[in-house]
Design goal:
The complex is a heterodimer of chains A (377) and B (252).
Chain A lengths: L3 H8 L1 H30 L3 H4 L5 E4 L12 E2 L1 H8 L3 E15 L6 E9 L14 H6 L5 E5 L3 H4 L6 E4 L2 E9 L8 E6 H7 L8 E2 L1 E6 L5 H9 L8 E4 H15 L2 H30 L1 H9 L4 H36 L8 H23 L13
Parallel strand pairs in A: 4-8, 5-7
Antiparallel strand pairs in A: 1-10, 1-11, 2-9, 3-4, 3-6, 3-10, 5-8, 6-7
Chain B lengths: L2 H6 L3 E14 L2 E14 L3 E5 L6 H8 L7 E6 L2 E2 L5 H11 E4 L11 H11 L4 H14 L15 H13 L5 E5 L7 H18 L2 E6 L10 E6 L2 E6 L17
Parallel strand pairs in B: 3-8, 3-9, 6-7, 7-8
Antiparallel strand pairs in B: 1-2, 1-4, 4-5, 9-10
Helix pairs in contact in B: 4-5, 4-6, 5-6, 6-7
The chains are: A alpha+beta (377), B alpha/beta (252).
Chain lengths: 377, 252
């Protein structure tokens, strides 16, 4: 079988180049956009993804982890009573106001009060045991390295949170927050910083580790039905993280913006690609008509056009993958929050291939001009 | 000519019966073919000649199944083409017909061998058989040493010979050629018409050639002169009437 589609693509590559570039850049834009969105909104759930807990118990209907309201401390007992639960620890969230030593004005901070033991679940992936141990000092806090400037402090400096003096004992990385600055403290320090008197004997979240993490959904469902300790709800860590990310993505309008932009990119890419492929078909229309006169069916000719569209897509997306990989590596080296899981990458690349295929279908229509009777004039 | 004799003659491969065709352009309806009846025999090079606009190309399109008739019948190899659907007509063309056009219509990306192999692969031939046939066809038109070249590296005459090889490799019963020499100089035109003639003789193929080129008349076995959609004369050219001006070049 003569590989007409591929040979033409190689021989007349200049003709096909705009289509390859259009598919490539559309794919690259989708990839980078998805990576940025996932990276930025992934930090909305850093409290969950940076921790090793399997279950989260919090106020019913909580849409995002930063919107937690306090629940009764008795919920801890309820969690411990379940035989599947291995350990439970509290998470004290305080919305607070930061005054630094430098002239930075007031900064809105989120204080996370955590268990500082080396085997603590909260921020198990984000804080080293040494750093956790340092939080045991009275009024000690840890902030993210990237936030030092906006807080106007360095390590060892003092600042004031909600009128209470604290001292920065270390810096973490990868703990940047959305819409504010994360400050990590021990549970005792956080309790000192919480100025709301109604929060005595109450806690924002209780997190639990299970003996078998695979059973997380069943255990969460079992624990959720009980109202003996006031109203509370239980989610698996995975669900709660996704819920927090989706809240930021859609309730802030950012998700709609991203989808809109993806649509525009798809449309522009499809217009350029289909026009290029149409021009390529028209350029060879007499040859196609001759093949049809010789009895090669219209279906076989369509297959040639679709094969060209496929190769245009494959070449464009190969380029997009290479450039996208380089761009993501560069972004990571500059602490730009980017994250891309294989499924999202695959979805972006499929969208690019879909663009090429749709363009191929559009170009296929111009094969109608390949009527052999027109050659006899 | 006696029609009854033609109907019974085994060598008649292509028949037109009361074929008519007209085109509508805006308000004006013009009849291109008026009630044409003719028989074309296998193993002969039949030339339809006439001035441009006389309907000869339309007649070729209808006889080859590229266009439907308005009225009448076309019987090719015993098949009434009017009774075949579009897919069946395509199949019929794939199995039985070859075409050579005025423009060579070769794919720029393919070399001569690939141009000829391409339609063969759709015939369902094994790759080795397709290659063997393609090479044999190119040898037959005298392009054996140049089969690795692309159209941009071939002369006009050579391109037309590749186009002939492409049609010939299918081993068609019917070979249609539309103005095959009008884009060529005298020497190359001579070579091309000689090849077409030889194909008719050696393969028993029905070769139907449409041309207004008077130099071809002497090379045809039979000449049909057309004007205004009618066949004016049907004759066998005598060798003495061959116009000799500038075409007696050595053939390749």
């Amino acid at each position: 079988m003569v590989a007409l589609a591929r040979k033409t693509l190689v021989y007349e590559w200049r003709r096909f180049l705009p289509a390859i570039l259009a598919v490539g850049f559309a794919g690259l834009l989708q990839l980078l956009q998805a990576a940025l969105v996932l990276g930025i909104f992934g930090s909305a759930s850093v409290y969950i993804t940076g921790s090793s807990a399997d279950l989260w118990a919090g106020y019913p209907g909580t849409q995002s982890v930063n919107l937690g309201r306090s629940i009764d401390s008795g919920v801890e007992m309820r969690l411990r009573m379940d035989p599947a639960v291995a350990s439970v620890e509290p998470f004290h969230w305080v919305d607070a106001d930061w005054r630094g030593p430098s002239d930075t004005g007031g900064v809105s901070v989120f204080v996370s009060g955590i268990n500082t033991r080396p085997d603590g679940m909260l921020f198990a992936h984000a804080l080293s045991p040494a750093l956790r141990a340092r939080l045991n000092e009275p009024d000690a806090v840890v902030v993210d390295r990237a936030d030092l400037d906006s807080l106007g402090v360095g390590i060892g400096d003092s600042a004031v949170i909600n009128g209470h003096r604290v001292r920065v004992v270390g810096v973490s990385s990868g703990l940047r927050a959305l819409g504010g600055v994360n400050v990590v403290a021990s549970l005792a320090t956080a309790a000192e910083l919480d100025t709301d008197p109604s929060n005595t004997n109450r806690m924002t979240y209780f997190v639990a580790k299970l003996r078998d993490p695979a059973q997380a959904s069943e255990v969460a469902a079992r624990l959720r039905g009980n109202s003996a300790f006031g109203s509370y709800d239980v989610w698996t860590a995975e669900d709660f993280a996704r819920r927090s990310q989706l809240y930021w993505m859609f309730d802030t309008g950012a998700g709609a913006g991203v989808l809109f932009l993806a649509g525009i990119v798809f449309l522009v890419g499809a217009v350029i690609t289909s026009q290029t492929l149409v021009a390529a078909v028209i350029g060879s229309v007499r040859e196609y008509a001759t093949l049809n006169a010789l009895g090669v069916g219209v279906g076989a000719l369509r297959k040639v056009v679709m094969e060209q569209a496929f190769w245009v897509g494959a070449l464009g997306l190969a380029g997009a993958s290479i450039l996208g990989g380089l761009a993501l590596a560069f972004a990571r080296s500059r602490s730009v929050p980017v994250a891309l899981d294989p499924w999202t990458a695959l979805a972006c690349l499929s969208l690019g291939m879909g663009l090429a295929i749709v363009s191929g279908l559009a170009a296929m229509r111009s094969l109608r001009r390949a009527d052999p009777a027109t050659l006899l004039r | 000519m006696n029609q009854a004799a033609h109907l019974t003659s085994p060598s008649v491969s292509l028949q037109a019966r009361h074929v008519s065709k007209s085109f509508t352009s805006g308000q004006i309806r013009s009849t291109v073919l008026h009630d044409i009846t003719l028989d074309i025999r296998a193993g002969e090079l039949t030339l339809i000649s006439g001035p441009s606009g006389c309907g000869k190309s339309t007649l070729l399109a209808i006889l080859s199944g590229l266009q439907p008739t308005d009225g009448g019948q076309v019987i090719a190899l015993g098949q009434d083409l009017n009774l075949l659907g579009p897919r069946q007509i395509e199949r019929f063309r794939l199995l039985h017909t070859g075409f050579v056009f005025q423009g060579f219509n070769l794919f720029p990306a393919l070399n001569a061998l690939e141009q000829v192999e391409l339609p063969l692969s759709y015939l369902g031939l094994a790759p080795a058989e397709a290659r063997r046939r393609a090479m044999a066809s190119l040898e037959e038109v005298g392009l054996g040493p140049r089969m690795g070249l692309r159209p941009s590296e071939l002369s006009g005459g050579e391109k037309q010979r590749v186009a002939i090889a492409r049609a010939l490799a299918k081993q068609p019963d019917l070979l249609f050629a539309d103005e095959p020499t009008s884009a060529l100089d005298a020497a190359n035109g001579q070579i091309v018409i000689d090849i077409l003639h030889r194909i008719a003789r050696t393969h028993g193929t029905t070769v139907l050639c449409v041309s207004h080129d008077p130099r071809l008349v002497g090379h045809a076995d039979r000449v049909l002169a057309m004007e205004d959609g009618r066949i004016l004369s049907d004759r066998v050219p005598s060798p003495t009437s061959t116009p000799a001006s500038g075409i007696e070049e050595p053939s390749a």
